[in-house]
Design goal:
The chain is an all-alpha fold. It has two domains: about 120 residues, no CATH class; about 160 residues, no CATH class. About 70% of the residues lie in helices and about 0% in strands. It contains twelve helices and no strands. Helix 2 packs antiparallel against helix 4 and helix 6 packs antiparallel against helix 7. The longest helix has about 40 residues. It is globular and about 75 Å long. The mean pLDDT is about 90.
């Protein structure tokens, strides 16, 4: 096989679909571990830079004020507890059964196939393994294959796949925790700007920059207005950064369609959860997954999607 033929095969729908299955397996790890890693860092920062910062307390309570002794005790307790936790990263330790701690063997960890061979149960304790794992793998594989189908066997297709992977991870983390980590949103924004500069996305660098500005600024203004009118937070800053990333990737022109689609689907799902699922009104519903859904729709159906909301004469 010639190098050109090998390259075309790797970037074909089948080749990228298989890669997407593997990336989807990794995204399951990211969604599970990244929030825990961030929370550990936040607790450390609280202990070191808040409870342990005498100068900050003096600025708050007065120049002569000293932090209560309980602060130092709490800081030490937090630091000691976090330091005793087992090491955790995205690569280590190896995947284990959350019920019994059984370390998955390589064939048990194969994307999609491993779960099917095990019939959705741990090989050691026999307890069910969530179907979410193969669903995320299959979804990511399907999205990667769709990128190959739409954008062809070109280096730019890998940029679209990277964007899709970041978006799936963002949606999963927000769905689980209501966090929208900068560790995922800011790389999406950077990827959008870089890909626009390289001419890979069909979005000019100017449109990408305006998309980032309008994505962040538009949602910030909407959230600010909502808080002034209702007296409560309508959405978090993470949503602003996510839409900024989508704007950088797709350009400012598609932002209205993304927001309208996300809002419409989010409203329908939210009402359904409240009416049929017993969801309490005061409990926030993550908006990130709906923005991601709108962004994915814009990637694959950009112009037709815009014409649904803003039909041209």
């Amino acid at each position: 096989m010639t190098p050109d033929a090998l390259f075309a095969a790797l970037l074909s729908p089948v080749g990228l679909g298989v890669l997407g299955l593997c990336i989807g397996s990794f995204l399951n790890v990211v969604a599970h571990r990244l929030p825990q890693m961030l929370e550990r860092d936040w607790w450390r920062e609280t202990a070191e830079h808040q409870l342990g910062d005498a100068a900050a307390w003096a600025r708050l309570a007065g120049a002569a004020a000293r932090p209560p002794a309980a602060f130092a005790q709490a800081a030490k307790a937090i630091g000691d507890t976090v330091d005793k936790l087992p090491a955790l990263g995205l690569a280590k330790p190896r995947s284990r059964c959350p019920q019994c701690g059984h370390q998955l063997r390589w064939h048990e960890n194969l994307p999609l196939i491993g779960w099917l061979r095990l019939k959705g149960r741990c090989a050691a304790c026999g307890r069910p393994i969530s179907a979410r794992y193969p669903i995320v793998e299959a979804l990511t594989g399907g999205l990667f294959a769709a990128c190959a189908w739409k954008f062809g066997a070109a280096p730019a297709t890998l940029a679209w796949c990277a964007a899709v992977a970041l978006m799936v991870a963002i949606a999963l983390v927000d769905l689980d925790t209501t966090y929208l980590p900068d560790d995922l949103s800011l790389p999406l924004l950077g990827l959008g700007i870089a890909a626009a500069g390289l001419g890979w996305t069909g979005t000019s660098l100017t449109d990408a920059a305006w998309g980032a500005f309008a994505g962040y600024g538009g949602l910030w203004l909407l959230a600010y207005s909502y808080k002034k009118l209702r007296g409560v937070e309508g959405m978090g800053e993470g949503d602003f950064k996510l839409l900024a990333g989508l704007g950088a990737l797709l350009g400012w022109q598609l932002l209205p369609s993304i927001v309208l689609l996300a809002s419409a689907v989010g409203a329908v799902v939210g009402i359904g959860l409240i009416v049929f699922g017993g969801h309490k009104r005061e409990v926030p519903i993550p908006f990130g997954p709906y923005l991601v859904g709108g962004g994915l729709a814009a990637i694959f159906f950009g112009r037709p999607l815009t014409e649904i909301f803003f039909p041209m004469p």
